[in-house]
């Protein structure tokens, strides 16, 4: 939870160590918190609470994990995917499926490409408003919204 001025909003860190924490935060033109954040200066103080939640992952407990995310929700699954594929002892395969409005709105492109170099990571992004055919090396790009049929296909449910 980040607290600035009179507002508190939840965010998922994409990276953290004992003395550093990194967030990926979408700036909404009319968003109250994100506009505060856009205007902060070095030296301003942001209060941090948490982390909250009790998601626990046990290494190698699944053959494959299929992750679905929309927009900035990718922050929630990216960190988990990264920690799994970077663990040499992991045999679990990850397929991260993300939905975005357009190519420009895809965050973490480089980071997702880096994960795609691992044998056990695959990424497919559905772009609902794709103007031209587009290629991002290492990532499968599909035009159109992720619909129910595709969702079931990814889960291999007939
Ligand atoms: C567990 C969790 C983790 C999250 N992690 C992240 C993260 O890692 N990164 C990230 O970017 N976000 C994350 N979010 C979302 C984040 O908490 C904020 O909701 C988001 O940043 C928007 O906040 P804001 O105050 O800037 O915008 P808001 O003021 O909430 O506005 C957002 C949008 O809604 C519109 N809007 C606001 N009020 C109304 C209304 N009454 N009617 C119609 N439209 C309205 C605004 O114009 C704007 O476009 C997370 C949320 C949760 C619950």
From TrEMBL:
Superkingdom, natural source: Eukaryota
The entry's keywords: FAD, Flavoprotein, Oxidoreductase
Positions of FAD binding: 10, 24, 32, 34, 75
SUPFAM superfamilies reported for this sequence: Ferredoxin reductase-like, C-terminal NADP-linked domain, Riboflavin synthase domain-like
Any one GO molecular-function label of the UniProt entry: oxidoreductase activity
Co-factor requirement: FAD
Domain FAD-binding FR-type: 1-58
Species of provenance: Apis cerana
Family as reported in the entry's similarity comment: Belongs to the flavoprotein pyridine nucleotide cytochrome reductase family.
CDD domains: cyt_b5_reduct_like
Protein name per its UniProtKB record: NADH-cytochrome b5 reductase 2
InterPro entries xref list: CBR-like, Cbr1-like_FAD-bd_dom, FAD-bd_FR_type, FNR_nucleotide-bd, Riboflavin_synthase-like_b-brl
